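Q: What does the assembly look like in three dimensions?
Context provided by user:
Components: two
Sequences:
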Amino acid sequence: MWIVRIAVIVVFLVLVEIAVRTELINPFFVPRPSEAVARMGTRLTDGEFLGLVAVTLGETFAGFALAAVVGMVVGFLLWRSRSLGDAFEPLVAALFSSPIVLLYPIFLVILGRNSTAIVALAAVFAVLPTILFTKQALSAVSRTMLNVGRSLNLSAWSNFRHILLPAAAPTIFTGLRIALTYVLIVVVAMEYILQIGGLGRFVSESSLLFRATDLYASVGLIVIISAAFIWAINRLEKLVQR
Amino acid sequence: MNRVWTLRIGAAVVFLGLWEGLARSGLVLDTVLPPATEVFGRIQDVVTQSDFGQDVYASLYEVVIGVAIGALVGMPFGAFMGSSRYLYRLLDPLVYYVGAVPKIVLFPILILFLGTGVESKVGIAAISAAFPIAINTALAVQEVNPMHVKAAKSLGASRSQLYRFVYTPAILGPVLAGARLGLGVAITAALLGETKVANVGLGFRAIEYYSRLQIAEMYALLLIVFVGAALINLGLSGLIRRATHYQQQRVGAAASVA
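A: Here is the predicted structure of the complete assembly.
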């Protein structure tokens, strides 16, 4: 299947290549795909560019770690106290579908125009799916299983460690996967908008300097890196659940 | 009053109280966190600004036209993708992976083609909206119950009757839910684009206030945008639920953000 998928992409690129060479598409706006792909290759062996990738990934992991820890703790609390859950789960769900990213000027004002603001914004956004999925995962654990633990006189900790956690883990992992995707999206988007940090900054600079080949090459690399990232998380999820 | 509302109102009071207290305490600069009362007071100033109507109009125009174009592209593509098992299995992963890319990075390419005016924002809104709409449409077409199709055919339904009475009612709910998701991401995309390159629009105005250090106005404007987006979202999901008795599962909603 992947061979056909790659063939679809290659055919598309070849059509664009022909269109650009015959000037059906203005070559000033779109570089030849062959050139853009070659540029991707040179960028990937360029230490400076790899440094930018490292910055973006660093911000992504920082934001994700924050969102994961806070989100799982809050999700646990919302599950533990029924009235807290009833009162605030709908609020978290509403925030989840609201345009949090648009609040970024507030983060700039409070934290400054730097990586900290980007990481904080990404974490605030990604904490929401983590909370929701953790709460739902724990709520879905059946009463019977918890009663078995109680009748075996397990301590609260063993009950949590050996019954609750294994039963809830798969759904929590789904939440974490969504959180990680969101963090990456917010980090790259904010780097582009603010022109600071890693890959997003590179896209912004390439466009301001009218370096079309670099622009398309870096956008292409972001697509590939995001896809690889999501693929890796999906693999990890499958490994953990086996 | 029940416990749930006591907790909610209590949390809101604590939040606003901490905000007001922290801002008035002198511990933080006024240009970082203006008091809540001042921000709420500025809402009227922001709304009565001479440019406000123009900004709202520009942003709404970008979002509405963007979603319309996104739907015109996304729905047929999704229907095509969902029309056969093979196409669906072939294209779904590609759409899924590309859909999870921060689409705002395509904005500079759109600026090359469409310029720095509203057109480039319409473009980024359309691209962002097209993905959830296409994904939902494809999934909906895939999941039309084959028994219903067979039953209609054996009753002698023509091709157009098949579309009219079997496919359309079956996919309407999920497709509308996709459109709602698309509208949400289009709002984010268009306004984010405005904060980067624009000379009109609510996103542009927020950044203007920011760069002129009119921080209370900036907070007030963002509050208006946030509440407005939430109301549009709520209103639409209510309408869709009424029209189709369909409720999008939250799990499936994680299509794309910016």
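Follow-up: Chain B touches chain A through 57 residues (CB under 8 Å).
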